[in-house]
Amino acid sequence: MSTPPPPVPPAPFWAHCAHGADLATDPVGCRGGHVPGHTACFAHLTAPDRAAYLASLTPGAPVDHRGTPFTGHLLDQLLDTLRDPTTGHPRFGLANFDGAQFSGDAEFSGAQFSGPARFGGAQFSGPARFDEARFSGYTWFDGAQFSADAAFGRAQFSADASFDRVQFSGDASFGDARFSGYAEFGGAQFSGPARFGRVRFSGDASFGDARFSAEARFYEVQFSDDVVFDGAKFCSGVLFNGAQFGGATSFGPMVCAGRVDLAGAVFGAPATLEIAAREVRCERTRWDSTATIRLRFATVHLSHAVLSAPVAVTAHPTSFETRIGLPVDESLLTGSTEVRVASVQGVDAAHLVLTDTDLTDCLFSGSFHLDQLRLEGRTTFAPTPSGWHHSGVWPVRWTRRRTLAEEHHWRAQTTGQPAPSLGPPALSRQWCPGPHHTDPALTPDPVDVAALYRQLRKAFEDGKNEPGAADFYYGECEMRRHDTTSTPKGERRLLWAYWLLSGYGLRASRATGWLLAAMTITVLLLMTFGLPTHDPDPATTGTLHGSKISLTTTSPDPALHGGWPQRMTGPRAEKATRIAVNSVVFRSSGQNLTTAGTYIEMASRLLEPTLLALAALAVRGRIKR
Fold it and tell me: Which long-range contacts (CB under 8 A, 24 or more apart) does 105-112 make?
């Protein structure tokens, strides 16, 4: 079966040339609009008629060439006719090129459009250059197709400009352009690189549903009014370095397969950003008003950002929705949707809120007011290495707790452990080194890390999350114990004993273990040295003085007799156990003891209640609210 021919587009609504019409194949023919006074378009006029028409034009005259096919030569003839001798550039009044086809170079550089300029549905097969063009009236490029490069560098749009549904197949350059009115790029498709460097948007700007298949650069852009990126898609990276957003900003929802770079951008009004991307960089970004940043899939960098008002970074749990309620297509991205914060270095955290974020690799060093940071929802920190490890001659196992990336970097640097080559950080069997692993001067030392733990602990405590603060108190004590520069030796030894006995008052199992061990040793010592073989009978002696007798009753010192079989008996074990249990609750047993037993009981009454108190303290630290 043969393939049916494609449908013929309907005839345009304007009076058209119809050159080359064929009832069988193309009943419409040429769609070029009639030149005034003729029944043909500019391309199909006879040479004399075309010359006469051009002679009737003067710079600033209105032209209407809708649907007209232009070659490079024909366009040059028209532009040369309209060229202003004082400026050397073409000058148009009303310019209507809707549906026109430009098969060669379209050189409109420096052109001045005094009235409305219409290029809706126009097709540019070759390069289109509008560099330094001036559009004084409404500008309309809706549905235009640029098959090659399109250049609007330093162009000035004094009124509204619409590039709705425009297709840019090559490079699209708007560097240093000025948009004084509303700028609409809704549904535009950028197949090649899109460059908006140093563009100034004085009115509202909308990139809703725009699609960027290659890198998009918006560096040093200024948005003085509202800007919308609702439903925009970036298949590669997008850069907003130094961009300035002066009005309310609705940034997204947008999908980017690469990096969204907002480094150095300035948001002067409330902003809402909804971005699904691999990486979002907000380094040195300035937020002069409140902002909500909802992210998916992304690793966000906030180093040295300036926060003058509350800024919330939130992991969005479900797909974003467009303004009409449809889910945004996220097929460009795969893998986990969790949001990772890579750095808050140099940030005033007093205005920062992080919700449901992964802080496993987050760098906190250099930030300030960290104790006022708000951590909401489920926040993940780096765990300690798993499994058993050799430290000297004895194998050790790290206590499971939440740690900071800075502690990982310091421990990896001091132990000389390389980065793990397999497995995610949560399953790492080693401490993970930092970016400056080979330079100890750039790796935080225990003093710095202890300060970070102290501030984050206070942030959890202020949020009424005492159990969450426990791990940070543990980390703070660990860093103080390893600090050989500012922590005195005596204090470090005290911390070492505190860690050994109870894990800084946070490990109930360790304190309970030591308590049971102490009670066991007490029982054995009492059975061996503290309990007499039998209780001595009291002895009474008297002295007769005339008719009076003076009596004195004494108890001999308890003594041990017999060997090990007589000492290690069940009744003696039961009696020693009662003495040890009474010592735990700081009570005297009232038993007859040898001199050694008395000292053993005194030592147990001092040590065992302390261990019991440490165990209770550890339990309270984990359940307190």
Answer: 105/72, 105/75, 105/129, 106/70, 106/72, 106/75, 107/75, 107/76, 107/79, 108/79, 108/133, 109/133, 109/151, 111/79, 112/84, 112/87, 112/136
Per residue in 561-612, pLDDT tens?
A: 556 666 777 777 777 777 777 777 666 666 777 777 778 878 887 887 888 8
pLDDT at 364: 93
pLDDT at res. 428: 52
Q: Is 29 left (phi over 0), alpha (psi -120 to 50) or beta?
A: left
Contact between 51 and 77 (Cβ < 8 Å): no
* Beta-strand pair 271-281/291-296: parallel
Task: Tell me what pLDDT residue 541 has.
Answer: 61
81 within 8 A of 54, measured Cβ to Cβ? yes
pLDDT of residue 421: 37
Please give the Cα distance from 440 to 404 (Å, whole number). 18
Q: Which residue has the tokens 């460097």?
A: 197
> What separation in angstroms does the CA of 172 have from each of 86, 148, 207, 217, 594?
30, 9, 14, 10, 97
Residues 401, 413 contacting (CB under 8 angstroms)? no
CA distance 112 to 513: 87
Task: Please tell me the distance from the alpha carbon of residue 491 to that of residue 610, in angstroms, as a whole number.
Answer: 19
Other CB atoms within 10 A of residue 581 CB: 15
Residue 4: the pLDDT is: 59
Matching residue, tokens 């273990």:
513
Both tokens of 117, joined, read: 């300029």
Sort residue 165 into left (φ over 0), alpha (ψ -120 to 50) or beta.
left
Note the pLDDT of residue 530: 72
The string of pLDDT tens digits covering residues 67-111 is: 999 999 999 999 999 999 999 999 999 999 999 999 989 999 999
* β-bridge pairing 286-287 and 548-554: unpaired
Element of type H or E holding 47: helix 47-56
- Spatial separation of the C-alpha atoms in residues 477 and 118, rounded to whole Å: 71
Rounded-to-integer distance, Cα 121 and Cα 4, Å:
26
For residue 171, give every residue at least 6 positions away whose Cβ sits within 8 Å of its Cβ, in sequence order, or none. 149, 150, 151, 192, 193, 194, 195
The encoded tokens of residue 604 equal: 């147990």
As a whole number of angstroms, the distance between CA 561 and CA 294 comes to 80
Please identify every stretch of the chain with a pLDDT value under 50, giving residue numbers as ranges: 1, 419-427, 437
pLDDT at 511: 82
What is the Cα–Cα distance from 286 to 307, expressed in whole angstroms? 6
Sign of CA dihedral 485, 486, 488, 489: negative
Q: Measuring CA to CA, how many Å separate 314 from each of 274, 356, 375, 402? A: 10, 6, 10, 21
Q: Taking Cα atoms as reference points, which of 14, 12, 30 lies closest to residue 22? A: 30
Res 551: pLDDT:
58
- pLDDT of res. 426: 41
Pairing relation of β-strands 244-245 and 194-195? unpaired
Report the 3 state secondary structure along 464-526.
CCHHHHHHHHHHHHHHHHHCCCCCCHHHHHHHHHHHHHHCCCCCHHHHHHHHHHHHHHHHHHH
